[in-house]
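Key idea: predict the complex, not the pieces.
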Amino acid sequence: MTAKAADLQSLERDLSARIAAASDDASLEAIRVEALGKQGSVSALMKTLGSMSPDERKQFGPKLNALKESVSEAILAKKAAFAEAALEAQLKSEALDVTLPPVRPRVGTIHPVSQVMEELARIFGEMGFTVEEGPDIETDFNNFTALNFPSKHPAREMHDTFFMNATDEAGARKVLRTHTSPVQVRTMLKQKPPIRMICMGRTYRCDSDSTHTPMFHQIEGLVIDETSSMADLKSVLIAAIKAYFEVDDVRLRFRPHHFPFTEPSAEVDVGCDRSGGQIRIGAGADWLEILGSGMVHPNVLRNCGIDPEKYQGYAFGMGIDRLAMLKYGMNDLRAFFDADVRWLKHYGFSPYLLPGLAAGVG
Ligand code: PHE
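Result:
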């Protein structure tokens, strides 16, 4: 055996041992560059072919080629083995045993107020209402003035308003909104009719007993177009209340009332049964007041840049907490905001069952 052939053999042994021992793609690549790269040991031997005698070349050339081939094949094979092992590991780590018993992650419950808001958004959403929002801290203009409350009028006091400290020189005081009606104003100021919206959120009045908390929730509805009437208001409310309480024989009673921002105004009672110490909506001879409503006052439209000669519409407002109490049977509103985990567990809703046509609201 010539010296060169011996060199070749030992080079081959050395390379295949190192390839076999390589632990990852990077070390494999280093070996490839060292052997087959431009400056590599195999490539260097290739270059010596030119200076050989024809006989030598005839004997040595094929061996060298075979070496080159076997080294690159070994590297490819090893690479493929690495890829397969990686895939194997990934599959193992992602394995899912569908025979294991289901364990629900512990994620608490949905508060009844949130649940009812979802239900109402659903119900009014299906009737073509969009959802608008406004801030809890409102200007006096949006909360009162634009809504046709005369200045210094006792109606402002009637709302048991929380006033903020004056922050400007004119002494204008912001308020914690006493109702969601200022979102009517915000919507009319930014959007041209037709308007068909609801708004849900926190409202504040300085009041506290078993059916009143200083912070509570309201839903507001506003429809402005060229033809909407008291009859439309009535049919929308009847449909919504039926859907919400999931009873067909809902009776509503519209009683004349006064709100500065609607004319005419009506308070609405829902028929119920109070016998047995529980309120049941639907059957029965009793009435329960649940909302305020009316045709939007022309002054309100004017204050919001809408021509009352051309447009008209209706508005309504309801207490969300009251709606939740009536549907889900809680009798003390204050417990809503105590953050008592036992209460939340009992009255809360599963986060996996959002209200929809199949669950909660039909
Ligand atoms: N904002 C009124 C309230 O809080 C309810 C209401 C809304 C009445 C819209 C009429 C129209 O009492």
